[in-house]
Amino acid sequence: MKPELEKVHAVFLTETEEQLTSLEQDLLALEASPGPETLRAVFRTVHTLKGGAAVMGLSEAVELAHTLEDLLTRLEAGALVLHSGLGTLLLQSVDAMRELVGLRPVAEPDLRLPARDVHALLDSTVKAARPMAPPSGGGGMERVARESGSEQSEPSHARERTLRVGLDRLDRMLDITGEIAIARGRLTSMLVQAHRYTPQQLLEAHREADRLYLDLQELVMKVRMVPIGRTFQPFTRTVRDLSMATGKLVRLEVSGEDVEVDTTVAELIRDPLTHLVRNAMDHGLERPEVRQERGKDPTGTLALRAFHEAGTIVIQVAEDGAGLDRDRITARACERGLLGPDEQRSDADLFALIFEPGFSTAERITELSGRGVGMDVVKRNVESLRGTISVDTSPGQGTTFSLRLPLTLSIIEGFSVGVGEETYVIPLENVLECVELPLDERHPGRTGFINLRGEPLPYLRLREHFQLGGELPPRENIVVIGHGLGKAGITVDTLLGQGQTVIKPLGKLCQGLPGLAGSTLLGDGRVALILDVPALLQQALRAAQPAAAA
Q1: Rounded (5°) CA angle 49-146-45
Q2: What is the DSSP string of 400-454?
Q3: In the chain, which stretches have pLDDT less than 50?
Q4: pTM value?
Q5: 448 HSE (CA, 13 A, CB side)
Q6: pLDDT per residue over 144-176, tens digit each?
Q7: Which of 74, 204, 305, 536 could crosslink 80 through cysteines, CB 3.0-4.6 Å?
Q8: Cβ atoms of 38 and 2 closer than 8 Å
Q9: Helix and strand element counts for the chain (H, E)
C-alpha cells in the first residue's frame, strides 16, 4: 500500500472504530428499550459505515452493511420483532464488520461467528420476514439514509498512537510556551550582564522560568488523561454475552466513568479487567435459582467503579455472589505445596494465593475460566503498571477486587540512592523510611536481616544483587520499601534525596532483567536505573524464607 493510501486507511480505521463502538452501544440500548429514535441512530451509523467501506473498496463489508440496512428497515416496518436472539445477531454483525474492515472483534472468542456465517444468518432473517407494504413518500429509514449521505463525517487522525485534545488546553499550552520564551530571553539577558545583578536576582529569574516549565509539564500530563469510561464501555456487551452463555441474570452498574487516567493506563488495564469480569461471571455470581434459594435477588449485580484515592486511581470490580471459599482455597494451596498442613495465614495472605500461576479452585474447566491463568495475568499486568491489587470478600455477600494504579506512567516522584559510582531511583510511593544499617548487624552477602523496632526485616544488598563489586563503604543505609502487604529493605551506600523522574524505557539489552523497571537521565547527563520494587521485594522475601526457617 502506498504511503498516502496508508494514511487514508489509518483515518478510515479510526473513524470505523468509533462508529462501530457507537453502533454497539446503540444496539444494546435498542435491545433494552426499543424506540424509533434509537433505531434511526443505528440505521444512520450503518449507512455511514457502508459509505466508508465503499470508498475503501471493501465490497464484503458493503454487502454486509446493505443486508443489515434491509433488516433494520423491516424492524421499523414491523415485519420483524426484536427479541434476544435477533439482538445477538445484530451484535454479531458488529463483530463481523470489525473482522471485514481489519479491526479486532470485541465479542468473547467462544461466542464469535465468522463474518460469512453472520452475513448468511442476516440474509436468511431478512428473507424470512413478513412482506412489507411499499412505503409512501419514502420511509423513515430511507430519509435517514439521505440525511446520512449528506452529512460529513468528523475529521480524525491516524488510528495508532493518537489522542483527541481540547482546543482550550492547546491554547493554554501555547500561552505558556510564549511566557517561557519571554522568561528565557530575560534570564539570558541577565546572565550576559551578570555584573549588574545580584545572585539573588538571578536565582529569582531562574525560579520564574522553572515555574513556567512545571506548569507546562503539568498541562502536558493532563493532555494525556482520558476518561476511564471509554475502557468500561465494552463490558456492557461482554456482560450481556456472558449472561446469555451462562444462563445467569446479571445487572451491570458502572460509576466513575468521568475519572481521568493516563491514556497508557487506560489501554493496558483493559485485559486485566476482562479477566476479572469473566471470572466474576463464571465463579462469583450464582445462577438465578441458587440465588433465590439463598434469599437473594435472582438478578446478580456486577459493578465497575473508578475513583481517586490518595494520589492514585482505584478501579474496582465487585459482585454480590457467593464470595471466596476460604476452605477450598486452603485445600487447593496445600495440594500445590503453597501452604503447609498446619500453617495459618491471614485472609489477605491466603486470598493473595489466587493470583499464583496455575492456581484455580474450579471443579471443572469451562470456556470462560478454570485453568488458573487469568488471575496470574491480572496480577502481572497490574504490577507492570506499578499498581497493586487487593481482594475483599464476604461469604455469601460477594467479592471486590480493587486495583490501585498511578495516575501517570511518564513522570514519578523518585528517591535517588547511590551504590559505588552508580545511581538508582526508587519510586517514592514505595519508600517507607530510611535507617542506618547498624555495625553489629552488618553481615557479608547478598541478603540479611536487621531488627527494626522489634521486628525482623529482610534486606537485599544492591551491590551484591547487581554484582557491582568493590569494597563495602564504612557506612551503609537501608531504604525500607513496601508494596502491597510486603515490606523489606534495600541496602545502599548513600541517600541522594527525592525529585521528579522522567521514565525512559530500557534498551533491548536490559529488557527483562530482574529488578529493573526503566531508566532516567540525571542532571549531569548520566543514566540512572529505576528499580522494580515488586520484583526486588519478592526476591528479598523469598531469600528470607530459608534463613527464617533455619
Answers
A1: 25
A2: EEEEEEES-SSEEEEEEEEETTEEEEEEGGGEEEEEE--GGG--SSSEEEEEETT
A3: 135-138, 142-160, 370-372
A4: 0.64
A5: 18
A6: 444 444 443 333 333 345 677 778 888 999 999
A7: 74
A8: no
A9: 18, 17
Query: What is the distance between the alpha carbons of residues 315 and 402, in angstroms, rounded to a whole number?
Result: 6
Other CB atoms within 10 A of residue 420 CB? 16
Residue with cell 477450598: 328
Distance of alpha carbon 212 from alpha carbon 180, whole angstroms: 6
Stated length of the chain: 550
Alpha-helix runs per DSSP H in 247-362: 263-268, 270-279, 288-293, 326-335, 347-351
The pLDDT assigned to 157 comes to 35
CB 32 within 8 A of CB 6: no
Kindly tell me the sign of the dihedral angle through the C-alpha atoms of 173, 179, 183, 185: positive
- CA separation for the pair 49, 36 (Å, rounded): 20
CA 209/CA 206 separation, integer angstroms: 5
User: Is-contact 318 251, C-beta < 8 A?
Assistant: no
CB 191 within 8 A of CB 202: yes
Q: Is 324 exposed, middle or buried (0-12, 13-18, 19+ CB in 10 A)?
A: buried
CA 536 to chain CA mean position, Å: 23
Q: In Å, what is the CA distance from 394 to each residue of 11, 331, 345, 346?
A: 48, 19, 17, 14
Gap between the Cα atoms of 45 and 69, Å rounded: 10
Other CB atoms within a 10 A radius of the CB of residue 288 amount to 17
Q: What is the pLDDT of residue 546?
A: 55
The H or E element containing residue 345 is none
3-state secondary structure of 461: strand
Distance CA 168, CA 173 (A): 9
What's the longest Cα–Cα distance across the chain?
97
Angular region, 396: left φ>0, alpha ψ -120 to 50, beta rest? left
Q: Which residues in 310-365 belong to E strands, given as ranges? A: 312-319
Percentages of the chain per state (helix, strand, coil), in multiples of 5: 50, 20, 30
Matching residue, cell 559510582: 421
Question: What gap in Å lies between CA 377 and CA 369, rounded to an integer?
Answer: 13
**Which residues neighbour 247 within 8 Å (Cβ) at sequence distance 6 or greater?**
287, 288
Q: How far apart are CA 538 and CA 19, in angstroms?
A: 45
